[in-house]
Amino acid sequence: MVPKQGIRSIQVVVVVVTRESVHKQAGSFESTTDAAKRRTTTLDFRRSLVKEELRQKIELADSLQREADIQQQKWHESILNNDLRFCLDEALDHSLGLHREATIRRTTRKLSKLSGGPIRIPRPTQGFINLTGYEPSQDERDLLQKGLNCHIMGNTKPYAKRLEVEVLLDQVHRLVDSGHITASPDIQHELIAEASRKRGSYTSHVLERRHRDAAKSLRDREGITVRRADKAAMFVLIPTDEYLSKLDGILADETKFQKLTRDPTLTTVRKANKIIDAVNARVDGLKLQKISGDFRPGYLYGNVKTHKIGNPLRPIISQIPTPTYQLAKRLNALLTPLVPADYCYRSSTEFLDCVNSAPAKGEMASLDAESLFTCVSVPRTIDYICNHVHRSSAHPLLAIDEYHLRELLRICTQESAFRCPHGNLYQQKDGVSMGSPLGVLFANFFMGSVEKVFSRIQQPMAYGRYIDDIFVRTRTSEEREELRQLLQEISGLRSTTEEAENGTLPFLDVLLTQEGDRMKTENKISKAKAHHLESTRHLRTTKGYRRGHEPKMALSGCLAIQSSTEMVPKNSNT
Tens of pLDDT along 54-72? Predict the structure, then answer.
């Protein structure tokens, strides 16, 4: 047992130790509080400095904006020839674009150094670009802000459903007559009754009534057209006069387009069906479906290239309502596996595999064949397709003879009529359109014929192509320029070069960085999207076609519009 004196002494020692520890903790608490106060004071001081700097910058920006407005007013009031004014405006826009890009690159490098690694640019908060002087209302902004993936679904049209039922009945009768299926005697009556019924709900849980009213307001507003931006999922508001004049300028090229005086749709159906009958008559051949149903000419529209100077249009001819659309899709499916695959990338993943598997040597750059689709020579490409398909031992022979294959390809590319926004009928004499199922196929076959030149020259260190975007690595810049000029001379297409800057090159959706003998890759934002991020302009709207012609760009249709070009698979590495 511990004596009482010992217990008292222990209690005294504990009390003394406890008091000392309390004093120490209090002192440390006071020192911590002082440090926190000092840090708070420092942060407040820094914050006040940043606020003051921001205030000065805002004042400077306001002053510069006032000065710019004055100079712009003087420029508009000056007496100049319209052509000269246009040229000067183009030059100024180009200079501003270069300055803007340089500023973005410089700022990005600074932010990358501060963060210790690559930075990701946030997506734009505004989902549209306004190239008009019109200021959309708040409801219209909210509607456009929802983007291309949110659209108003219209009610089904009774006559369209009846036509689909008639086509279905025709196909059922054919299968019954051929002995492939047996059908109930009541199927015809049931399908006819189904044609008059309305099914499904068309009420959107995202779009409110005010959004629908805003869509009607934009659709009916004179002088404004709503289109989508090229290479970016954004709406563009564009003055209708400018939009129509740019499309008229495209159609004015008589080497590519021919104006028609009557609708050739029925003639095209008869021609195509005659050839299809001849193909199907072969015992050992494949069977093509005959063309039947209700058809009309396609329609022309344009996506706005807001990432380029002058906001040119990318012309797209939708061939969905034409009689040759399904036939073209079938030919595309048959011929796609036969596309020359020596230098063709199927996707950015395949491109990355090729880049990572090869040593990072030489100078890398990208070449771009400008306006490849519209400049593809159709007769030359058809000749190359037929020679490649019927005279090559690298693949099985296609079960369509050369004459009929040639005629089917010609009908699908050169005899499909379309209407312009004014309602006039045209045919495309040469070149293929974006919107045709054969567009990418012809582009790949055409470039494949051009690339046969590599068998006769010294090949570059690396070469690969995704449709019209070419990645190349050469020993010297002179070798790359000789290659570009040779491809340009053989193809007849104008091509541009983008060289690597400080060992960095964007290609497809990949950013390549060469570090010694090693290649570093990361995802990137395309030039078009990067331009949208810093663009101070806001949107243009599309006023569509005349009533009675192809669908008007009511926001109900505009929000759902997408390019109908398809990605062509191919199997190859560089």
Answer: 888 888 888 888 888 788 7
